[in-house]
Amino acid sequence: MIRKLMLVVVLVAAVFLSRPLWEEKVSPYVDVSFMDAISDRVMSVIYTPAVSDALDSFQDTITSMVIDIDAAIQQAPRLEPAESREKVEKPDLSPPTEQMFSIYNVKIGDARQDVEQEIGEPQRQTTNEYGTEWFAYHENFGNFLMVSYNDEELVNGLFTNQDLLASSAGITLETSREDVTAELGEPLTSMRKGLVRYQIQNDGEYDVFEVDDSYATVFYDKHEDQTVTAIQIIHQSLEEDREDIYTAPSDSLKEGFEYQLFDLTNAARVHHGLMPLVWDDQARETARKHSADMADNAYFDHTNLDGQSPFDRMEEDGIRYTTAGENLAYGQFSSVFAHEGLMNSLGHRENILKSDFGYLGIGVAFNGENQPYYTQNYFNN
Hints:
The protein is an alpha+beta fold.
């Protein structure tokens, strides 16, 4: 009996002494695929007082709503958006030799001075989820890319959703997912933050690869035969400095996510031959209030707890429109992932690429778990 008791004591002591190693080995997997689950349910209705009370509410990770109004009964002047625009001339791209990828001939580790000597000054600078800044470079949203720099002014992050990608493996925006994985191998299935290992989704919308001391996230367009539609490249040092999957909220991060999502939307429109939208501060305030209401009250819906539709809220805030729409997203840890998820859902994609829209305001808010809520309010008057 004593021998058995001593054996139990020894086993307990061994487990206790090896506890840190044991915790690391069995660190929990957190499935974050919910962040990019998208519903294709879309509301569309001809808006009149008779039907405004009949709008059904629904709940999902990303939702979209669009509404058209008879312009003949409106007195406000109407912005006539162009159906298409001429594309900015594409630069000559040279496949990199030292690394797998370059964007607009810019690579991880390049000096900011050299980058801007080649492509010019940034159009916008905003805080990102990594605690650095995205510098957005473009020509009226053509030849669009975002670049992050470290303290030594060397490139440590890159993103584009336009045809600026060059690769030593021949990967471009026309490459299929099958060919990408054939060249880069099996994508990562998880990513570690501290003692927590987060499981990466595998639904065909994006893959994450370890390439050249960096993490390359390759996004695919489900509506264009799962070809590459965007790429984000983050140096390992930058990714590993981010301790959690969600960044602690701040006013600068909120504004950064808003303007980044606006720029990404316009870059997608220009890539598809449409005119960019005009930023609207009032629509941003309407969107911010709805995002904050959802975050504070733990719901996710176009119709708020007072029964107001997006169009009720816009009218209440003095926004006059002939056509309006709303996209919602929740849980994506950056505007890049929110935008690419919206583009892969037909209803939300239609709002993003709707030629009738002329203005856009975006509002972001965070809940108590640092998860962002995104509201996009589109309209035309």
